Amino acid sequence: MTTAQERAVVFPCDAEKLIGIVHIPPVASDCGVLIVVGGPQYRVGSHRQFVLLARYLAANDVPVMRFDCRGMGDAEGEISTYEDFAVDIRAAIDAFFVNYPHLESVILWGLCDAASAAMFYGHSDSRVKGMILLNPWVRTEAGQAQAYLRHYYINRLLDKAFWKKTLSGKLDLKKSTSSLWDLVNKARPHKEQAAPDAPGENTAPIIMPLRKRMYDGLAQFTGWVGIIISGDDLTAAEFEDMVKGSKAWKKLLRKKAVEFHYLPEANHTFSKQVWRDEVAGCTLAWVRRELQCQK
Question: Full-prediction pTM beyond 0.85?
Answer without folding.
Answer: no
